[in-house]
Structures are given as structure tokens and as C-alpha cells.
Amino acid sequence: MKAIVSLVGTQDTTVARHRPGTDGAAVSVRVGGALIYIKDVETAQSFQAAWQAAAQHARDLPVRSDPLHLRPMRGVDEPVVMMDAAGMPPAFARLEQRPGQPACVWVTHGRIVFAVHDHAALATTGAAFRQADRLAATVLPPEVDLRARYQAAAAVRGLLAAPPRRNGDHPPRPAAAARPDRAAGSSIEQAR
Which of 2, 58, 171, 189 has a CA 20 to 30 Å removed from the CA of 180? Predict the structure, then answer.
């Protein structure tokens, strides 16, 4: 199920950090009644890139939008949507222009789709995700780069390995073991 959040005019946004530097660290972005908890730096960068792509469509958006795009629903003051985002869920922007209707930019973040109807909505929401991207770099622990880990392990193995031999060098031979006395025989022979 996807949630569509329509944005018209200047948005009420909040960006906050939660439990910085821990395994439960997150950066939250609230846009009206939509709340997204971003759990990794890559997801923050991906969401920011989607808003940058949306900004490229800004020239096609109206400066001011018709407030009738946000008709109140009977019995519902303001819908609320929350999502945890990690592992780079789909994030992209696309422009929709239907004949005879104003343009709209659709910005998708996983299961939340923002329908951006004007410049003010794009500017304020895009600024919130830019701030979240900057904050994520200081709040969220970096992903472990496995290539770096493998390179470090190879370097350690190289340091602990025996030095390379030259052609004339032979490994030392173990000391000759004492020959058992033939009369005593081996323990296996005695057991027979």
C-alpha cells in the first residue's frame, strides 16, 4: 500500500536526529502529517537526489497552486503516515502534465509518494531533505565497507606470512626422531 501526500504551499517541516552514533540512530523528516525515519546515509542521499531531480522540473510547476487540491476529508483532521527507511528504497521524481491541468511533480520515497503542486511546496520540502542528508552524515554510523575489511585482512596475512625464499634456501629440517628399539616394537604391534 502506498500513501500519497499532497503538498500545496509552504510546508510545516521538522528535521531531527535520534540516538546519534548508535545502532538505533535515525534522522527524521516530518512534512505535515508524514514522518519518515531515515536509518542510513545511503538512503538519506537517495532521498535528497530525488528532491534534486524534482527541482529540475520546477519551471513547469505553478508558482501558486489551487488550494482545492487539498480538500478536507470528512471525519479526518489530518492523515498521518509514518515510515522507516533503510537500504535505499525506491526514490525518484517524475513530472506529470495532463492537458488542461497544472503540472505536478511526484516524488517517491519507498511507500510514500509526495504530490508536489507548486514552488513553495517544492522549496520547503526539498530544503528539509537537504538538511536531513547533511545531518545523516554526522548522526548515522557509516556502513562497514567490506572491501576495506578484506584488504586489511590480506595486509595482516601478508605481514604474518614467512618471508619469501630464495632459490638456494631450503626450509630447516626437523630434528631426526629417535628410532624406536626393534625389540620393543610399536604400541600397535604389542597390542596384536
Answer: 171
The DSSP symbol for 172 reads: P
DSSP E strand boundaries for 8-146 = 13-18, 26-31, 34-38, 81-85, 91-96, 104-109, 112-116
Q: Is there a contact between 49 and 91 (Cβ–Cβ < 8 Å)?
A: yes
Ramachandran class of 158: left when φ > 0, alpha when ψ lies in -120 to 50, beta otherwise? alpha
The string of DSSP codes covering 82-102 is: EEEE-S---EEEEEE--TTS-
DSSP conformational letter for 58: G
**pTM for the full predicted model:** 0.69
Q: How far, in Å, CA of 68 to CA of 70, rounded? A: 5
Give the rounded distance of the alpha carbon of 26 from its chain centre: 11
Task: Name the residue type at position 42.
Answer: E
Between β-strands 112-116 and 3-7, what pairing exists: parallel, antiparallel or unpaired?
parallel
Cα–Cα distance, 7 to 117 (Å, whole number): 6
DSSP strand E in 86-179: where?
91-96, 104-109, 112-116
